Each structure stands twice: as structure tokens, then as C-alpha cells.
Amino acid sequence: MADFPIRLATENLSAFYGETVGVKNVSLGFTTNQVHALIGPSGCGKSTYLRTLNRMHELSPAGRITGRVLLDGDDIYAPRVNTMQLRRRIGMVFQKPTPFPTMSIYQNVTAGLMLNGRPPRRALDEMVEKALREAALWDEVKDRLHSSAVALSGGQQQRLCVARTIAPRPDVILLDEPTAALDPQGSQRIEELVFQLKRDFTIVIVTHNMQQAARVSDTTTFFYVGTMVEHGPTKQIFTRPKNEQTEAYITGRFG
């Protein structure tokens, strides 16, 4: 871990919805250019925790936190932080593909690029191509960039959402079960994509698939009933877990 600086971290973080505690007292650091998996049973706080990392949980009127979330040492919950600009730096891809239905493929990719004014058309074209290539989608859509995004297959739509997320060059990508709604072939493409993207981005992924976590991640964190139970290198978590609950979960005895 010493070879990679901490890009994103939480300190004593607890997240609430009204009086309900979604996750409590999580102190955790995510190093640069690695894939970090969050695992645990349904309802244990993984997605709630993920959404606190770019203030997405605030879209719920009752959402609030205590503690801090630090991006390169700066608290993202500080009053001066612009949440729209923050979400360019910490992008998020959801479980179900969410292309903007009234926009073309090209417009979907450029959506985040327009927040600070429209770049010159040539530069915009280059950024769109770069993002679609990085999302392994360019060759499939280069001849229909101005067609509807919803005409794409489910797997293509999810890769388009990845392209839209990475186009503004975020520091961190959050993936909330990105393959849950995809067939095996689509899931494999996303996993291959995650492996490639960590060269340029820090990635935090929520997954229910133990095999997927083992395949794609460098570190794994196990959550249970809103509590962070164990965190460590993925190989260690899956072969020599230190906590009995962790071992019981990854061996299928519950969850």
C-alpha cells in the first residue's frame, strides 16, 4: 500500500436516512490506480457507503452523514464544495444502465463535458472517441454516434455509461453492481474494462458476486449490518480471512 498514495478515504463515517443508520463508523482508505471491492449481503450498507463517496445519498431528503470523506486530503462535505463539480471528479455508474433516453450516443458522452462550457467541436470529437475507446465501445458505435442511446443493447448501454463517466477524466470511478443487470457476455466485457481502466483511474466497486470480486479487485472490504467487518488485500480476504464472519460469508454459509 505504501507504493500507492491514498486517493479517497473516509474517517469515522456514518450515514443516515432519517433515524435509520445505513452504515456506521467506517474508516477506510482507497489507494490510487487500484480496484477496491465492497462485498456483503443485501442491505448491509455497501451501496449506501458507496453513495456517500460522491454525495449521491444527498439526493434523498433524509440523507445525512457524520464523519468525513476525503479526496486527496480535502473534505468533500466542506461548505465550499460544488457537488456537481465533485461528481465530475468522483463519477458513478449504477446497477441498471442509465443512458439519457432523449440524447444520442454522442450527446450522452459529452453531457459531463459541457458543465464548464462547450469545448471546440474538434476537441469534443476527440474526447468522445477517447472515452468510447477506453470503454471498449468505439468500434461498435463509431458509425452511429448520432443515433439514440437506448437503441443499444444492455451491455452496450452500460459501457456507454462508463464512457460518459470517464469522459471528464474523474479521479475516482464508483461502480454499484455494474453487471447485475447484464448477461454473462456483457458482464465479462465490463470486468475486462475494469481491469483496463485502473491504469488511469481509482475504482471502487460494489458486487454480490464473490468470483467477480476475486477476479477484478486488488482490495476487498466486507460489510455486515452496516458495519465494516474486515478489509485487506483481496487474496488474503478470500484465502486467509481474519474474521470468522468474513470466512462464513465468502464460503457461502450465509448471505
What would you say this structure looks like, in words?
This protein is α/β, with parallel strands linked by helices and 255 residues long. It has a domain at 6-99 and 170-250: P-loop containing nucleotide triphosphate hydrolases (Rossmann fold, 3-Layer(aba) Sandwich). It has ten helices and ten strands. The protein has helices spanning 46-52, 83-89, 105-110, 121-134, 138-141, 154-166, 184-197, 210-216, 234-239, 244-250; strands at 6-17, 20-31, 35-39, 63-71, 74-75, 90-93, 172-176, 202-206, 219-224, 227-233. The strands form two sheets. A six-stranded mixed sheet has the order 6-7-8-3-9-10, with helices on both faces. Helix 7 links the parallel strand 7 and strand 8 (202-206). The mean pLDDT is 94.
Distinctive features:
4-stranded antiparallel sheet; 33% helix; 255 residues; Rossmann fold; 6-stranded mixed sheet
What's the SSE pattern?
EEEHEEHEHHHHEHEHEEHH
Low-confidence stretches: none
Shape: globular
Q: Could you tell me how far the N terminus lies from the C terminus, measured between alpha carbons in angstroms?
A: 30 Å
CATH fold call of the domain at 6-99 and 170-250: Rossmann fold
What is the number of helices?
10
CATH architecture of the domain at 6-99 and 170-250: 3-Layer(aba) Sandwich
Helix content estimate: 25-40%
Measured on Cα atoms, how large is the radius of gyration?
Answer: 18 Å
Strand order of the largest sheet: 6-7-8-3-9-10
The total of beta strands comes to 10
Please give the CATH class of the domain at 6-99 and 170-250: Alpha Beta
CATH homologous superfamily label of the domain at 6-99 and 170-250: P-loop containing nucleotide triphosphate hydrolases
Strand content: 25-35%
Overall average residue pLDDT: 94
Largest sheet features: 6 strands, mixed
